[in-house]
Amino acid sequence: SWTLDDIRALPTHEGFRTLQCISADSITRSELIGNQRWQGARVADLLDRVEPLPEAGYVIWRCADGYHESLDLQTAQDPDTWLVYEMGPPGTPLPAEHGRPLRLLVAGRYGMAQPKYITDMVLSAADEPGWWVKGGWQTDAPVRTYCRIDLPIADGISDSVLAGRRFTALGVASSGDRGISAVQYSLDRGVTWRDAELEPLGGPIGRLTWVRWRAEVRLDEPGQLLFMARAADGDGVWQTDEVEEPFPRGASGYPRVPMRVYASLSDPG
Fold first, then answer.
1. Which of 81, 106, 154, 155 maximizes the CB count within 10 A of its CB?
2. Comparing C-alpha atoms, which of 19, 11, 3 is closest to residue 206?
3. CA 201, CA 75: separation in Å to the nearest integer?
4. What does the alpha-carbon distance between residue 207 and residue 181 come to, in Å, rounded to a whole number?
């Protein structure tokens, strides 16, 4: 048995990470993704003291709310797999809605694979499908490369700009633990693409966080168009343009915002 104080006595690790819900939409602007500072201990340090038997191949996590999830032992021993008890400014306990007193963080996985309210950690020779996996969701829940458009914003049907005047487009991109190497945007439904600017070196507050992007855009021709974006992970692999719903492995498809370009301020459209 381990108390929370026992886990706090293990070597401490802290850093910022991005968490994303597997239910987040890819086409529209989803708020089911966020960035935060966490502090806790590596699961590997706890396992070193437990000394798993040779036949142990999985860790089964059981939680106070009845939820359970499994993790292969190799991933559990990864240095980026943490048991966290702080969230937010240093010294801030993990909030109740985010899993107090203890939750799991697994790099590169959607939130469904990172259980909260942990009460038991069971070493097992056999896998045990997690709560959502039993419902048909993907087992490992790896994060798919994701790009979000924060500006322009679809206000009602579309966002409006004035022809010949520059505006700033911006957003975030993430691929879990694979990083982001490029973001591009398109003004002609993906026929051609232009490079967006990523945060300067050292801009991301951690290698497991999203990356912000921006672009200065000028639209000279009045009319309607679709502003689209896409991201490439750290290996240079572009996200797919194939549109998929979140079930069962996370949504896909390029984000898009309808836009209307006016010739002048008095243009009735």
1. 106
2. 19
3. 29
4. 12
